[in-house]
Write a sequence for this structure.
């Protein structure tokens, strides 16, 4: 094998290689003989098929396989000889200026990983939220949990906000029932905003057994384009009015939340512990985001185009899967997502990946087994059977790799927090949760 290295740009390289033709032909012959020993064709016993027929049937395929293997092996030997770290995949092409008829000459064009020189983050200013979970925060969470378990009981009165109204309706536009404009047993909780505001407003102060007709104008930006901006006449027949009844905060309620003995104080303590765990995670996420930005601001790096393209494609595929998981009928071949909307995010992710890898290497921030175990245990605490979750992690190599990556990021964040300027800021629980 012959190889020479050419630098095209800061990160792009080209290696010219030549593989002896005799080497290819010898390997092709060896593989065809191996195939002939076990080949059976009509009219011939196994292993007795003439080589001419074996070559005719399998020769082309075997030649391509041998050539591909030889090219791959030559490329790997070349980059190891030059001590190169390849980013992405090489572009293999036959050489147009090939002159050696005794060899197969080709070139491999590729990018290498950049040399990363970590910047100084010591001048970065980072704000660390300080949050105390109060009894009032526990009370608010209890109210949310109660509303999630609300029961509706039929009442003999006119409907009001908060009631569950059951009705049959027919909606018409220009005298014709539109698609989706008819339903029986339709249920709507007044005030939740799950239907058009005009529709809900018209259902306030109605009684079971009452019939009512009213107009509703669909918004210009309505999701069903054929209805957008149009006015429909609805004829409704109310069949039931049910008032909400929240469960009492008692032993039965505590048991429904997983507190086996129904102890209300124990339930409150568990809710507080869950909120404090969420506070810890939110604070860590904010600190991590600021630390990552500090690294990006202080470290200049050239990102390989191949890695950027790969990450952009990965983000696009994830977005499509997410849209499909939400019930959207998305065909990527018919409605391709524009790559440029993911470019900025991809650039950030690839840049941070390269920077953090260097920070881990230079500062010996490798994740320790005990750190990984702590993360798994913390994650498992939010589940009903933590031990099963822990077991599932240890049996799942991909998930273990994700946890190790989190541990590495945590190590980098802790390392950076010892060097940056940190200012504590007291804020409320609701502010941290984005509710204020």
């Amino acid at each position: 094998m012959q190889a020479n290295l050419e630098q095209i740009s800061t990160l792009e390289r080209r290696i010219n290689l030549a593989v002896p033709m005799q080497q290819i032909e010898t390997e092709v012959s060896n593989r065809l003989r191996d195939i002939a020993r076990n080949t059976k064709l009509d009219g011939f016993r196994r292993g007795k098929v003439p080589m001419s027929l074996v070559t005719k049937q399998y020769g082309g395929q075997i030649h391509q396989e041998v050539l591909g293997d030889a090219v791959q092996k030559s490329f790997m030997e070349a980059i190891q000889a030059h001590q190169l770290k390849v980013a992405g995949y090489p572009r293999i092409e036959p050489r147009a200026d090939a002159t050696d008829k005794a060899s197969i000459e080709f070139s491999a064009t590729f990018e290498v990983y950049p040399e990363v020189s970590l910047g100084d983050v010591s001048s970065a200013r980072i704000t660390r939220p300080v949050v105390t979970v109060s009894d009032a925060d526990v009370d608010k969470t209890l109210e949310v949990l109660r509303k999630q378990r609300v029961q509706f009981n039929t009442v003999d009165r006119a409907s009001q906000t908060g009631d569950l109204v059951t009705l049959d309706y027919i909606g018409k536009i220009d005298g014709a029932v539109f698609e989706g404009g008819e339903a029986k047993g339709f249920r709507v909780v007044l005030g939740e905003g799950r239907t058009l505001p005009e529709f809900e407003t018209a259902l306030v102060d109605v009684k079971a057994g009452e019939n009512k007709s009213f107009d509703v104008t669909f918004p210009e930006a309505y999701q069903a384009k054929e209805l957008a901006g149009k006015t429909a006449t609805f004829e409704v027949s109310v069949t039931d009015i049910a008032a909400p009844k929240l469960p009492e905060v008692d032993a039965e309620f505590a048991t429904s939340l997983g507190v086996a003995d129904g102890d209300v104080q124990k339930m409150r303590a568990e809710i507080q512990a869950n909120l404090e765990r969420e506070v810890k995670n939110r604070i860590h996420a904010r600190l991590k985001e600021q630390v990552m930005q500090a690294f990006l601001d202080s470290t200049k790096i050239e990102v390989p185009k191949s890695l950027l393209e790969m990450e952009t494609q990965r983000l696009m595929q994830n977005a499509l899967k997410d849209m499909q998981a939400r019930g959207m009928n998305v065909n990527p071949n018919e409605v391709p997502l524009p790559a440029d909307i993911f470019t900025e995010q991809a650039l950030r992710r690839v840049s941070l990946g390269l920077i953090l890898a260097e920070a881990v290497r230079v500062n010996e921030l490798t994740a320790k087994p005990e750190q990984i175990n702590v993360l798994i245990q913390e994650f498992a605490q939010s589940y009903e059977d933590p031990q099963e979750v822990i077991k599932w992690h240890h049996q799942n190599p991909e998930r273990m790799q994700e946890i190790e990556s989190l541990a590495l990021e945590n190590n980098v964040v802790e390392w950076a927090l010892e060097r940056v300027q940190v200012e504590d800021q007291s804020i409320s629980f609701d502010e941290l949760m984005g509710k204020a």
The radius of gyration is 33 Å. The chain is about 45% helix and 20% strand. Residues 264-298 form the longest helix (35 residues). The chain has three domains: 2-112, 125-135+260-432, 150-245.
